[in-house]
Specification:
Largest sheet: 7 strands, mixed
Shape: flat
Order of helices and strands: EEHEEEEHEHHHHHHEHEEHEHEHEHHHH
Structural class: alpha/beta
Helix content: 40-55%
Radius of gyration: 29 Å
């Protein structure tokens, strides 16, 4: 479902997350030409407080007709263009909780504002030139960051660390395009085109595009994270592993097989990557109806996971039941976790290792005493090829939309090089080069369609 953005008029929305009866502060944001007039109607600032830009006023939000006090609040005034949207903006800093802040919002709507659409404040900031499109996306990513490292990558984008190289590449392409089109229009008045220089510049641009594209996979990991399923037969220590890893008692641990009947989730951060860990029911044949459902959910969790931690009991060794489960998950991205390794000696460990697939990633743990977890985390990072590269080492990390635009830009450049090799007329060069300029412009917003804006900003929360 898409939305059609209406960017005229004065808009208002709640700009903070509201927890019923628990929030300490809530903010209602108003932006547009009537923002200050609306505030003047409903806000009473006692004494001789000066209504000036970037000043905070203390007072009461009142119903303009009945003069009934709705809330005691602070009012922040930000006159255009020194505001988030580059329009007049006012913010009512109210008591939190759902009732008071909704009443303040309703008064704003009754006195000339309309409810903002999702992302409309940031859309106005983009349309009014305060930020570019890549920075707007970074704002959304910063709000939704699931780890400190993801927040840092988003903040880098907000600071323009992606926009700057993209603009430089686009400017280089425009310079080359100007050289080519000048020869088309004024060939007799200009020296011959330096083919070697043009090819060299295009190859440099292509190289820079590839360097930026290389951040896409890491960026996706930082934003969406990993879904990791712990699977295995009953009583191999799956729940103990989850509890030790998450430093909590999320899962019930007993010596009774089949204790875990459903999928238990925990949210972790591993090397900057958000990880959703799923502790699943032990996989075995059972006549228990509830346990059967749990086993089926375990299989589904493994199928839908990005990574499977196949867990076995070192003391029990590699059993027929383990082999059966392994056969069902061996085609997935897999790490073998050999748990309870403290219950066997070195010789028994060597015998067990000899029975295991030599190509399988193996980690030895003692979940009950938190041993082996660091090695497990490193194995996970290596498995997803994140390795020792942390988010702090990334100047920025592009998202899927930006990566698609860069792929299009690279494709157009490769077509330019092909056109040059075929010795085709300069008009053909300019067509493909324009494709590169357009694709790069899509990233920062110099070239953008309403449908693209709709797709981006509809994912924002209403107050942002």
């Amino acid at each position: 479902m898409t939305q059609t953005f209406v960017t005229s008029g004065t808009i208002a929305a709640i700009a903070t997350a509201i927890v019923p009866q628990q929030g300490s502060v809530g903010i209602v944001r108003v932006s547009g030409s009537d923002a200050i007039a609306i505030a003047d109607k409903i806000f009473d600032a006692p004494g001789k407080q000066v209504w000036d830009t970037h000043k905070i006023l203390y007072g009461y939000v009142r119903h303009p007709q009945t003069q009934k006090i709705v809330d005691e609040a602070l009012l922040l005034l930000m006159k255009a263009p020194r505001s988030y949207t580059r329009e007049d903006v006012v913010e009512f800093h109210c008591h939190g909780g759902i009732i008071a802040i909704q009443q303040v919002l309703q008064l704003c709507l009754e006195n000339g504002a309309r409810l903002a659409q999702p992302g409309e404040f940031t859309l106005r900031a983009f349309l009014n030139g305060r930020i570019d499109l890549s920075q707007a996306e970074s704002i959304s990513e910063l709000v939704g960051a699931k780890s400190p490292q993801a927040a840092q990558a988003a903040l880098a984008g907000l600071q323009g660390k992606l926009a700057q190289p993209i603009r430089a590449l686009r400017a280089n392409c425009l310079d080359i395009l100007a050289e080519i089109e000048a020869r088309i229009d004024f060939e007799e008045d200009l020296p011959p085109l330096d083919y070697k220089y043009i090819i060299s510049e295009i190859e440099k641009i292509n190289s820079d595009i590839n360097r930026i594209l290389a951040t896409a996979d890491k960026g996706e990991l930082l934003r969406t994270g990993l879904k990791v399923a712990i699977v295995g037969r009953p009583n191999v220590g799956k729940s103990s592993l989850l509890n030790a890893w998450s430093r909590s008692d999320r899962a019930i641990v007993t010596d009774l097989p089949g204790t875990t009947r459903d999928v238990v989730e925990s949210q972790l951060v591993v090397g900057g990557i958000p990880v959703q860990v799923l502790d699943t029911a032990g996989i075995r044949e059972t006549e228990d109806t509830v346990e059967k459902i749990g086993v089926e959910r375990s299989r589904n969790a493994a199928y839908n996971a990005d990574l499977v931690l196949f867990t076995i009991d070192a003391a029990a060794g590699w059993t027929d039941a383990d082999q059966e489960i392994y056969d069902s998950v061996k085609d997935y991205s897999l790490i073998l976790v050999v748990n309870k390794v403290d219950l066997i000696d070195d010789k028994e460990k060597e015998i067990l290792i000899s029975k295991l697939d030599a190509h399988l990633s193996k980690i030895f743990t003692v979940a009950a005493s938190n041993k082996g977890l660091d090695a497990l985390e490193m194995a996970i990072l290596d498995k997803v090829q994140f390795g020792k590269v942390q988010a702090a080492d990334l100047d920025f990390a592009i998202n899927q939309r930006q990566a698609a635009a860069l792929v299009n830009a690279r494709s157009s450049l490769e077509q330019v090089l092909g056109t040059i090799k075929q010795d085709l007329p300069l008009d053909f060069w300019s067509i493909d080069l324009r494709g590169t300029v357009y694709a790069l412009g899509e990233i920062t917003g110099e070239e953008v369609t309403e449908s693209v804006l709709d797709r981006i900003f509809s994912k924002f929360c209403i107050g942002k």
